[in-house]
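Chapter summary example.
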Amino acid sequence: MLGVSPTTVGSVRRELADKIVQSGQMDTQAEDWTNHPYLREHPDILEGLSERSLRAIKAPGVLDKMQEVGSRSPRYCQRLLYKERKEANKSPAITVTEDDVEVFVGDVRTGLPQIKDSSVDLVFVDPPYNKEAVEELYKHIASVAGRILVDGGSLSVMCGGAHLDVAMREAIR
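The structure predicted for these 173 residues follows.
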């Protein structure tokens, strides 16, 4: 949709994987994980590991979990971490009630003067998906969001893929 070929995407991904630690991931090219205290204490753990187990042992938190539970199985500990994260997501740290939410319904082209500047944490917009609406509304959405969002606030705009290029162009004008 953005005019980038799959070949280009693949080559850039490979280049990034070789050079950069992506957010939330460990650089598996680095040898730092081999200095983990649990591996120094039990160097035989690495003997005979499958490729999948070797990938698992390099994943963030797996060696710590292995040490915590006294396990010699990286994939088992990776599954434990997955289950813990899944459970943690069931109990969000933030609870939003109806008192925390105020819904404004209006025409964004008016500028929505009833909403104070820098007073909104999240703007969620679901405009029509046709090309005319995208060309007309996205510049207004960007303008209003820029005015009413607090620093660090979020703008989420639903957009059909057919006119994504137009939406992106209009939003930055």
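To summarize the output: Residues 9-90 form one domain.
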